[in-house]
Amino acid sequence: MQMLIRREHSKLELEQKLTSKNFNIDDIDYSIQLLIKNNYQSDKRFAQEFIQMRFNQGKGPLKITAELKQRGVDGFDLSEFDFFALAKKVKNNKFGINIPTEYKQQAKQKRFLQSRGFSFDQINNAFE
């Protein structure tokens, strides 16, 4: 419960943290199932908060998806977020609204957006 008070955790995160503290695996499974049953832990709620946090940080859908899968969460919905507009906003905030004419500068900016987890379509749209 103390872990969930600070922030939402995925089921896998809780299992990993409790295992690292040398709790019995049966006790861990029972405790987590009890938390889920009482709606104290929810992967869906965790995913919603995590996606919103990463979106606000300017991260793209590829990075968010990878991070959620790393935390053991599948079956989330990114459709309510406009990643095309976010890619453009991130690009403009970092490099300004002007589109560079030099290939090297444009490639650098595109690599930056790619490292943030945006798709090629979203990146190309940010340069239109």
List keywords for this structure.
128 residues, mainly alpha, Arc Repressor Mutant, subunit A, 8 helices
Structure at a glance:
The chain has helices at 2-6, 11-20, 25-37, 43-56, 61-70, 83-95, 103-115, 120-126. The chain is mainly alpha-helical.
User: How would the global form be characterised?
Assistant: elongated
Number of helices: 8
Structural category is mainly alpha
Helix-strand sequence: HHHHHHHH
Query: Low-confidence runs (pLDDT<50, min 5 residues)?
Result: none
Average pLDDT works out at 94
Distance between the terminal alpha carbons, to the nearest Å? Answer: 48 Å
Strand content: under 5%
Number of separate domains:
2
Fold topology:
Blueprint lengths: L1 H5 L4 H10 L4 H13 L5 H14 L4 H10 L12 H13 L7 H13 L4 H7 L2
Helix pairs in contact: 2-3, 6-8
